[in-house]
Amino acid sequence: MGTLPKRQRVGAYAVILRDDRILLSRLAPVVTAEELWTLPGGGLDHGEDPRDAVIREIHEETGLRAEVGETARVYSAHVPSAWRDGRRIDAHALRIVYDGWVPVDAPEPRVVEVDGSTAEAAWLSVRDVLDGTVPVAPMVLEALRDHRPFRKQRVAAYALVLHEDEVLLTRISPRGHHAGWWTLPGGGVDHGESPREALEREMEEECGVPCTIGALLDVHDVHFSGTAPSGRHEDFHAVHLVFEATVPEDAEPRVVELDGTTDAVAWAPIDALGGEDWPVLDVVRAALDARAARRRGAR
What is the C-alpha separation between 112 and 118, in angstroms, rounded? Predict the structure, then answer.
């Protein structure tokens, strides 16, 4: 038997996670007669940047507009005797694998490319992939083994605003993590922005009211992994600077910023917090407890 013709192929792919699911593409029957799922992506065209290639391939295979990170991992697979395009070859595949993400409000995936190598695209359970319930190409398991969520630390400023027996709260929209839960008004501190300036800006955007910021009340933090508003899978560490604040007596809070992570603002009865109508994040309780402790210490 003579030496088989050598073929080397470079492809770009993405690991796209959303909570406990992963976006995968099922290979078409022209590629394999068996059910087999793989990462969305494909071969680079001559002269094409790998990042451009993976974004193009994700759209062709899933119909979704994706973004990918700045770094990637490279996997090599050498199959000395592989069947390709009606003949046997010595195949060598180089796979450049990025971390990717799609918007949280993206539509359901669908194959756009006609008569290509993808028959179906879907969000599938990571657990089913890992335990073999979903048959996948080896590259999927390699990439999941090496995947680490993007690490992000965010400093934010929040206001504890009280009026008699009520506290001013904002509700997290479907675009944010913990959608439907209530939290203190406030948000991220932009680069170069002071926390107090950030809080004044956020109060205007989220509540439509000016505020007078008082003393720093508490420094609270939370650490979890999940899907960010951008759609990216993140290892998220939030540091919350909580200030006491007041708003004008005649203020009528209303959400000003549209399509953000806040969809409602309201005065909530403090004794009802944590109930069915007022599920609240830990920072709310922490702020109220810190205020109570400060008042006890001042006596």
Answer: 9
